[in-house]
Write a structure and sequence with these properties.
transmembrane; NADH dehydrogenase activity; NADH-quinone oxidoreductase subunit NuoH; transmembrane helix
Length: 345
């Protein structure tokens, strides 16, 4: 019993709980399956794709997900002869794992924090910039012309969408005068949600997230009709499965950040009282934050079925010529809001 109690205490220790269980590897893996399933079902319904609709209808198509997982696990991992083997092998693994790294700075509750940080917003935003570098590395290490083109596209888009996202985050940080997620959520509980305080910053960040995670109409890096699968063309088996999962993991992490900054975080968890500290202060706030982020993710998945893909020049023109300007405008809005209301964090 002592060993079991020790294991339970270890699993409930915030850093381990966050990275392993919720919202870490286990929860993210389950969410990944749900998002892929939802994307297939929605696309099948809207675009009249009979395969996703008719496969194991009594189980809502769940058998196809199991079959795909088994296929990825049992397929041979083929490493091209001309590939740079070490970066080729390590890039998708590192990108998938590091895609979840910002979670260490994202609170799911004011009372249950992985690592307390006064600059958690800044740290989480900085950590989100690492996976794109590994995507570029995967394309370069594959030594394939389609992979190199896909990596080059990622580099172009990275500069565009990260500028939009970071400026949008800076706008709401300026309005709240804090770099702490917890304080930002507390201010939203007292005044109003960030999406109402600065809707321009919220809209710009949403579009930036779709660009960052290759959601339609910005699925340009892996455009199948043009560059096969972009940076991931030479990958097979479970390595390709990891490559597929990178964008979903990053989408969820970005949506967690968006939820805390613009959608009130765990609000209105404070209005719920059961008399249990674990339920009121940990489980309920965590469930609210996760639900908001999942709903956002499902909306972005839905976009795949109703929008066509932009060309690379169209996406870059929109990123720098329009959304970058909108993000700068959100800074002006935050300055005006702060001057009028006179908030002090």
């Amino acid at each position: 019993m002592g060993v079991i109690a020790t294991l339970i205490d270890l699993l409930m220790w915030p850093p381990v709980f966050y990275l392993v269980i919720f919202p870490g590897f286990i929860f993210t893996f389950v969410l990944l399956i749900i998002l892929i399933w939802a994307e297939r079902k929605v696309a099948g319904r809207i675009q009249m794709r009979y395969g996703p609709l008719e496969i194991s209808p009594r189980l809502a198509g769940a058998l196809q997900l199991v079959a795909d997982l088994l296929r990825y696990l049992t397929q041979e991992i083929i490493i091209p002869r001309r590939a740079d083997r070490f970066p080729y092998f390590i890039a998708p693994i590192a990108a998938f794992v590091l895609g979840m790294l910002p979670i260490v700075a994202i609170p799911f509750s004011p009372h249950y924090y992985p690592i307390p940080m006064n600059d958690s917003i800044l740290i989480a935003a900085a950590l989100t910039t690492i996976p794109p570098l590994l995507t570029i590395l995967a394309g370069w290490a594959s030594n394939n012309k389609f992979s190199v083109i896909g990596g080059a596209r990622e580099s172009y888009l990275t500069a565009a969408y990260e500028a939009v996202i970071l400026i949008s985050i800076a706008s709401i940080v300026l309005a709240y005068s804090t770099l702490d997620f917890t304080k930002a959520v507390m201010l939203q509980e007292q005044i109003t949600w960030g999406i109402l305080l600065n809707p321009i910053a919220a809209l710009a960040m949403l579009v930036g997230i779709m660009m960052a995670t290759s959601r339609f109409p910005f699925e340009i890096v892996e455009a199948e009709p043009e560059v096969v699968m972009g940076p991931y063309t030479e990958y097979s088996g479970i390595m390709y499965g990891l490559c597929m999962g990178i964008s979903y993991v990053r989408m969820f992490v970005y949506n967690l950040i968006f939820t805390l900054l613009f959608l009130g975080g765990w609000h209105p968890a404070g209005l719920i009282s059961t008399g249990s500290f674990v339920v009121d202060s940990i489980l309920v706030p965590g469930a609210i934050v996760a639900t908001k982020a999942i709903v956002l993710s499902l909306v972005m998945v839905f976009a795949r079925s109703v929008y066509g893909r932009y060309r690379i020049d169209q996406a870059l023109a929109a990123g720098w010529g329009f959304w970058f300007v909108i993000a700068l405008l959100s800074l002006v809005v935050s300055i005006g809001v702060k001057a009028i209301i006179g908030w002090r964090a």
